[in-house]
């Protein structure tokens, strides 16, 4: 059971990147997925969520610039990031909290993080 994130890199201000996170070992389509990021000076912050019914939610500066989506056939969640700014620099993590037994116990899954650097 794991999440594998990729797609980070170096981009100029105003540019775009698309992050991907591939899930394996569990019923991906049944659970919500999130992207969070660790930025300098702000700690870990939530960026976007997508529910199992495809409803989405965005936090802070991600609104209007980022788009989260999922492809259940590929067990993959994406984060399309447009109009990137210096303050978007950081390490981006995908996350899901999955139910693992009939009692409702949950396990937090984290991708390994993918670094995004916005620099001119």
| Largest sheet geometry | 7 strands, mixed
Radius of gyration, CA atoms, in whole angstroms: 14 Å
Mean pLDDT: 96
Q: Helix count, per DSSP? A: 0
Query: Which spans have pLDDT < 50 for at least 5 consecutive residues?
Result: none
The tally of strands reads 11
- The protein's oligomeric status is single chain
Structural class: mainly beta
User: Which word captures the global form?
Assistant: elongated
Amino- and carboxy-terminal Cα gap: 38 Å
Q: Helical residue percent?
A: under 10%
Order of helices and strands: EEEEEEEEEEE
Beta-strand percentage range = over 45%
Verbal overview:
The protein is elongated, with a radius of gyration of 14 Å. It has 120 residues and is mainly beta. A hairpin with a 6-residue loop joins β9 and β10 (106-110). The chain has no helices and eleven strands. The strands form two sheets. Strands 2, 4, 5, 6, 9, 10 and 11 form a seven-stranded mixed beta sheet that branches.
Throw out a few tags for this protein:
120 residues; four-stranded antiparallel β-sheet; mainly beta; seven-stranded mixed β-sheet; single chain
Record the SSE blueprint.
Elements (H helix, E strand, L loop, with lengths): L1 E5 L2 E3 L5 E8 L8 E7 L3 E8 L5 E3 L7 E6 L4 E6 L8 E10 L6 E5 L3 E5 L2
Parallel strand pairs: 2-11
Antiparallel strand pairs: 1-3, 3-8, 4-5, 4-9, 5-6, 7-8, 9-10, 9-11
Short summary of the structure?
The chain contains no helices and eleven strands. The protein has 120 residues and is an all-beta fold.
């Amino acid at each position: 059971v794991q999440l594998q994130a990729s797609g980070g890199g170096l981009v100029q201000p105003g540019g775009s990147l698309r992050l991907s996170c591939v899930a394996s070992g569990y019923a991906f389509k049944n659970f919500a997925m999130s992207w969070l990021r660790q930025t300098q000076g702000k700690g870990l912050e939530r960026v976007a969520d997508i529910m199992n019914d495809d409803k989405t939610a965005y936090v802070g500066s991600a609104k209007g610039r980022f788009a989260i989506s999922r492809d259940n056939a590929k067990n993959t969640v994406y984060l399309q990031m447009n109009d990137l700014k210096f303050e978007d620099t950081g390490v981006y993590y995908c996350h899901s909290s999955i139910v693992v037994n009939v009692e409702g116990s949950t396990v937090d899954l984290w991708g390994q993080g993918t670094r995004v650097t916005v620099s001119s």
